[in-house]
Amino acid sequence: MSETVKNEQMEDSEKSYRELHRPASEFETREEYLDNELKIMKPRRWGLNLPGRDFRFEWEDFVPAIAGTIGITVMYSAVMAAWAAGLSERWEHVNLGAEFATQVVRVEMLIPALLFCILSSGFFNPKANLAGNHGPMIPLIGAIALAGAHPLALAILLGVFGLILSYVKGGSRLVNLTSSGVAGGLLVFLGFMGAEGQISSLFDWAGNLQSKHNLDYSLGYVAFFILLANVVLYAVLAKIGKRWLAIPLCSIAAVAMAFGLGAGLDLQFVTEPGIPNLNPVYWWGSTEQGWQLGLPNLEHFIASLPFAILAVAMWSPDFLGHRIFQELNYPKGAEKVLMDVDDTMTTCSLRQIVGTAVGGGNITSSWGTYMIPAATAKRPIPAGAILLGILCIVVAIIGYPMDIAVWQPVMSIALLVGVFLPLLEAGMQMVKDTKSSQSAGICIFAAFVANPVLAWALTMFLDNNGLIGDEERAKTLSVVDRIVIPGLAFVICLAAMLAVGMIPGIPALL
């Protein structure tokens, strides 16, 4: 490298984003302009970032904002419905229905959107990904409620454990110790299982339309044609390099196909405009209103403990998958805008405590339905985070868009093209040679035997000790990185899963 080039690079490193910014008209392609924006951004960590000075709004930012809004509305609705059903079954005095679930979803979309999308990830730390929903925990919420856990107790424990892990930089350490083979296998498994689940849900929805609406004919074929149309559309978008448009365009296509094939009668608008009760005392101060549980006691904290440990243990592989999308789609030299795992963990922990304290019930994690489309669209975090926060607030107040977002064709297609197919693609991209394919294969096999979190912990331990994968890589690691940290991760995950009954064939120990 010549002395002149070195001097130019040093000068650029000292210049601000505003000084280095060049208009899109100076670049041959839009992609070159977006790549340059990623390279010159210098986000201020826990400092004030301002539009124009530190980042810009581009029309591509609307794509992850819309995708994230659809995804989070779907996830929150599933979470609150599961809490309502489980708590109503567990406690005789609790009777929570659909109206309760809708109002709690609105609480979760208003307060956290303002504090942790717009203010936190938008203005004060664009290196922290937005705090969204912990998707892998949704199937467990029924069991959490039946075990006697309290949403507020769970939130406090989860937030405290998360803050401790982020303080000691445990999240980033675990991410760095996960090889590309292990990470690739984890992503492939999550993508495959998620895709299979959404496809099955869509076919079940279409098959039930006949009896649900007393029709003389079956609408089971509707799911097939919706999926077929979206496979073609997604392939075209991938071919022309516009996959970041997949969620809005494919969701629109799903709605159009459903109406065109006679399934539009299943869409009902029942959520009227309004603002939920934002007084924490209403939600937690009495056993006659809100969650009808009152404040948590020691019994609630004990019942919530293993689930809180499990949720935090599952954060690292979740965060890893989202950061990988940035690394795969961002150009070299854009390291400054990659999400910081530990800062994201801090944001998720605070969001968990605050969001639940004001009446929410979400179990939070890194926001995948935002980050994956944002990375694919080659956009950094802040502008899209602000737009997403605004959209969530608007949707929560208007109400009716929530009904569209949770309609089965929109929900399944949005999750398929926005999360699970990209997960599959990213996982396969990471498996580049025989050694990484061995680690990936064993990770997938272990995930089928137990679950993806335990599989990640086990294969990370085996891989870091050279028992599978790249033996030369294992030789470069210290004893702490080979044995202590991966071993502790495996033991903690195993203990938490044994406690809550997540190991097949073994009843819950607590």
Structure description:
By secondary structure, this protein is an all-alpha fold. The chain has 2 domains: 3-40, no CATH class; 59-500, no CATH class. It is built from 23 helices and no strands. The chain has helices at 3-14, 17-20, 30-40, 62-90, 98-124, 141-146, 151-167, 170-176, 180-212, 221-239, 246-260, 280-284, 298-313, 315-329, 341-357, 368-376, 381-398, 400-405, 408-430, 434-449, 452-464, 471-475, 479-500. α4 (62-90) crosses α17 and α11 crosses α19. The chain is globular. The relative contact order is 0.18. The mean pLDDT is 88.
Unreliable residue stretches: none
Question: What is the count of DSSP helices, taking H or I runs of 4+ residues?
Answer: 23
SS content category: mainly alpha
**Oligomeric state of the chains?**
single chain
Helix-residue proportion? 55-70%
Number of domains as seen in the coordinates: 2
Largest sheet: none
Report the principal-axis shape: globular
Radius of gyration of CA atoms, rounded to a whole number: 23 Å
The overall average pLDDT, rounded, is 88
Percent in strands: under 5%
Number of strands: 0
Q: How is this fold's topology laid out?
A:
Blueprint: H1 3-14, H2 17-20, H3 30-40, H4 62-90, H5 98-124, H6 141-146, H7 151-167, H8 170-176, H9 180-212, H10 221-239, H11 246-260, H12 280-284, H13 298-313, H14 315-329, H15 341-357, H16 368-376, H17 381-398, H18 400-405, H19 408-430, H20 434-449, H21 452-464, H22 471-475, H23 479-500
